[in-house]
Amino acid sequence: MNLSKKNQEKMFKFICLIFTSFAVISLVVLIWHILRDGYEWLRPELFTEFQSRFPRKAGIKAGVFGTIWLISLTAFFSIPLGIASGIYLEEYGKKGKIGKIIEVNVTNLAGVPSIVYGLLGLALFVRLLDFGGSVLSGALTLSLLIMPIIIVTTREAIKAVPHSIKYAAYSLGARKYQVVFGHVLPTAMPGIVTGIILALARAIGETAPLIIVGALAYVTFIPESPMDEFTVMPLQIYNWASRPQEDFHKLAASSIVVLLTITFFMNFVAVLIRSRGQKRMKL
Amino acid sequence: MFSSRSIDKIVSSTLFLCGLLSILTTIGIIFALSKESITFFSKVPVWEFLLGTSWAPLLEPKSFGVLPLVLGTMMVVFISSIIAIPTGVATAIYLSEYASNRVKNIIRPSLEILAGIPTIVYGYVALTLITPALKILFPEIEIFNALSASFVVGVMILPMISSLCYDALRAVPRDLREGAYALGGNSFDVVAKIMVPAAASRILAAFILAISRAIGETMAVTLAAGANPQLTFSPLKSIQTMTSYIVQVSLGDTPVGGIEYLTCFAVGSLLFVMTLLMNSLSQVVLVRFQKIK
Question: CATH assignment of B56-292?
Fold first, then answer.
């Protein structure tokens, strides 16, 4: 086939467009499929019932509360530690050899599969520190998992702070900690908050590491302390989806609708904060 | 109480300790994995683990050849790459060369949303939508099969490939692109002969990272690909990957210190080493690129 130059260009553009539409089509099909399967089962009982052998009587109450517990604790551990590490890497350790090593290390940690963090959690928190299959073990494991994300976004947010702000503060005689905590950090806050929300949204959807540290699929109570056993929404979804009965699949789909609503909402808020922050920085 | 000088010292050393936490995490991972793996390898020879062709640690007679799991993982990686790599590169090219702002405002958020969807959701879609759809094409397909899982893993790694390739194409110096156009090349010439070659190493690094991500992918393959470790090259059959084996054992009641418990760490070590190698390789590729530049 001998295409003219003009046709060759058009053809190439068209092929690229077809491939590009794949992402949008996948997304539309995915959401349509889940809504179609799940909308009937989106009823109040979904939120007020615990796990059950009968799909009509089963709900995600335990999962919702488990997820709230888990994410609150994860946020409690990972946010201060992640921000602090990010500040250290960007403002203090940049030139030093240890700073370089930590930097490479964080990059590598971000690429470690989540299931490996699960094995670390199992050996360290569940067995060695004897926290068992508790919310605490799960939260500590997820904290280690999302810390690299928080560190990287904190660094990027700090990097985007105009130097003029820093120099102005230094020139007025401020010490480093005053510059960092009084000026750099507040300016970088929108970017950091965006990163934190995205990281927590990821943590909400995590399943594998929690299975490894011993979260249960069949739970009929709400955790009352960090040492209690727990389940989370994705794990209940997994449990229902892996059963053969059609009704359980529908139940899984309706829970997915809930899960996706939460993660989409968090992503939306994150993007909103980011775009506002960018506008402010430009002014 | 404190002078501002000493506060400065205290703050910087506190931050340093927080920074060290990431090093401790790495040490923790290596220590946890190797401690249990060493116990495992004192019972099962390394070569039997790495070269054995039968994986049945939960059944009598037990056998500990990890190759079926590795092959299962590789099959998922291979098929998902076939789907995601061309699609991702074409998407990146379209976005960076052709797309109007309006199109960009549809495609990029879609990719971001796809990237943010929990993997369990992809697993559900593979099991309840992709497999029934594939059954129309291949009536002999099993309920749990490698193909449907690989398909959704492909969709999952697509956003990563397209966004990294997009960045790679954007990073090509403007004068290269404009010079090519000035010499009379059309957009196909410019993309195929100038842009992609110039961005090649960053694109390659993106592929490697995406493959590494696919190796570690867990819930979608656990849900959709089955739990049947076998040496097969047919994607229509049920298989088991390294990750889904670890989940399978964790869901059952396995006694601590038992051989089943130890196998998780041995398989986990192999997984960790494989992804670490891939991630390091992608960094090596990038560094070489910077030198050439």
Answer: 1.10.3720.10
